Amino acid sequence: MDAISDRVFTETTSTETSNDDPSLLTVILDVSPAGWYRIRDQTSIDELAKSLLVFMNAHLSLNNSNQVAFIASTPQKSKFLFPNPEIDYDEIRTSSSSSGSASNQHQKTPTLVSKDMYRQFRVVDEAVLEELNVVFDEIANGIQDINNNSTLSGALSMALTYTNRMLTLDQSISTTTASAINSTTSMGAGSGSGNTATNSSTSNPSNSITSMKSRILIVTANDEDDVKYIPVMNSIFAAQKMRTSIDIAKLGFEDSSYLQQAADATNGIYFHVHDPRGIVQTLTSAFFIEPSIRPFIILPTNSNVNYRASCFVTGKSVDIGFVCSVCLCIMSKIPPSGKCPACESVFDEKIIAQLSKGPSVLSKKKRKIDTNGAAK
Amino acid sequence: MSSSNLFKATVNEYLEGLPQPVQSKLYEAPATCLAIFRLLTPMAKFYIMTMLFNDRPVALRDLDRWCKPHAKKLQFDSLKRLTSLHLIEEDRGGNHIRLNPTFRQNFRNCLTGSQQSNAFGNLCTTTDKHRVDISFLDNFASSKWETILHFMVGTEATATPTTSVLSLLKSGGLMEGPGNSPQNLKITNTGFQFLLQDVNAQIWTLLLQYLNLTQELHMDPVDVLNFIFVLGSLELGKSYLVSSLSATQVSMLADLRDYGLVYQRTDSSGRFYPTRLATTLTSDSAALKTPSMAIEQALGASDGGEEQQIDTPTGNQGTVIIETNFKLYAYTNSPLEIAILNLFVHLKSRFTNMVCGQITRESIRSALYNGITADQIIKFLETHAHPQMKLLAKEKLDKKIEFDTSHNINTAGGAPQSKVSGEGNVAQHKLEILPPTVVDQIKLWQLELDRIQTFDGYLFKDFSNQQEFDTLSNYASEVGVLVWSDKIKKKFFVTAEGMTQVAEFANRKFQRNRQ
Prior knowledge:
By secondary structure, chain A is α/β, with parallel strands linked by helices. Chain A contains 14 helices and 10 strands.
């Protein structure tokens, strides 16, 4: 009898539908030369860029209002390749379709993109390829002053700020062209007979209602674990709050524990691509799980995550270390100043003396104090 | 179901109903492939994408492993959809599936940009003597479309649409009346439902009607559909060559011009411009204004002067405020919107710029009797909600999320088990623009009407043991076809569509057990 009372209506009327909201995909490509040099037998960055373009096209093909952004993280800086606020993409489109204007004659990239390609795809692909070549030139020219520090954390926060902007800001006042296509739609539709001025100023609430989803894909071949720990962790928390998942496509030989944590904490996918030759298939399957269907798919991710933290003093990762009792800052050794490097609280000298007595005396006791993790 | 899903569903239904040779001919055009892909459900899109660059057929068992158990129903739905569109083919053993080779080739070409040159329309390279800009096109499109809508509600002093449009409205059952004279036509209940939809859904309704007509005129449906889908991928503000179109498509131009989908200066002009109505055919309709807003704007513009200054800010946005006590205030003077509200609201008083009313059981029931669903009403109220209501709802939601995340973040750093509950929490919150009491009550009033539901289906009984019953009934409920089950009597009932699935599953299980 109980089956009748609860079953029938709920089952048949409220079917679980995954809605088809537009989504924003931000691709971060780590182009630090060292990592790519190491896997030169397997793939080249050209090949990967091609696959990424197909991947972005595929994302755009899902929904007319879908958007993409592309950030390159070079050893010197992080840079938005698409959308670039300084470039009017309408210009590019017409100049390249009238074949060879002065601005892009010296570049060989526009030929890579067929001019018959679907408009949305072409705009993105052309822009990314052109800019990517510029980035390569810059790296080649500035190869001496490479300081071998990954700028991935910077790129990640750029991606997050852009995502935040796209998710909450009124799209019609943003200058970026990825949204311009959208904003002209909403503005133009309004200006059919009304006046545009009032339109753009009042369209804020309606736009913020349409729920945009977002995710970030990081592609890196960097095997050095030189990602800055604190900025990355902060980005992870920000992403958690924005409900943006961070997916990681890791090439090369080593796993990156911080990026693993990033994917794990944001419900993203961490996938170590051992053989990058057929990467387009990997991208369009494992990395193609849209936020809207994420609750229904078993993510192809590794649950075996190394939750290592990094030392605030040396920047190296630590397995066992000291923790500041005030701000939970992690240290592999006690700083000589006797102060916490993050919050500057002064540690108790007696305990410092006790902790730094050295292992020769009473090694058992020392460990006990260590695991209690008490300084000050 | 939101109205954008609704139009997708109807288009899909039409496509599924096409015979297979027509379907595979459709897949020869890359633009059509893209459009059809966009119309699919997210899950189906995911399946297609995974198979697109995979040269080997995919085992059905693998598909099962990708999905979480509670998503079985979604999986079956999307696979069913794909099979009936003939986008996927099963191999002889029925264990592996692969993509339709034509579709796969063309969609791949579309993504990699290696399709033949005029797949997305043939751009006019010479400049037009009579230059046309985007705002002109928008004006043209909205004036054409609004003429139709105004005519339907009988706004005074509007032009009468052309006879082809009138015959569409009539054959689609949106308007009815004796004879052919436009004065005799009256809007029907279906017509009012039509007005409740958004622009995209409306255009598709008319286009599908148009497709039915073309079949009677012996036009090639593939040609017609291809043209419609190509239109959706054209670039706004650019002109395209008429000469690259087939004869059927040229003859369509005149009709499409009547709906405001394309602009062609004269019949003999060698170029045509797609309007925004056409270029957004396959996209999400969120970016478009709803028809009633359009009409309101038109009215505001015709009133002119200062009044417009006051009206447009609210007029553009939506006007309806609903309180938890079921009172409704709409800041509107548009006859169309008032007429629509009158379908399901007991309107009490009218002022120069607003109407007040009350949602009552009777008013909702009368709407339901007219074939309007509760979801349609709720959707309408949501899209037309006053910006203040939306802001309020958003603030509430933000607060809830803020609370959850700040609650979580303390533990989220390292402990994976805390994350699971976090996701659950986040998923719980939805943007509630309308007061939940009102939404629930409207739904309950609908449920009142169907206290007895009838299902066509099959009864399974006489199981030999409890375990056999359990596996089968569990399977049926996972797939979402189970209607009723009784554990003690060992009987359960599945819907007619689910019968084959469950029977197949039973056969498989039964055989394996025997071996």
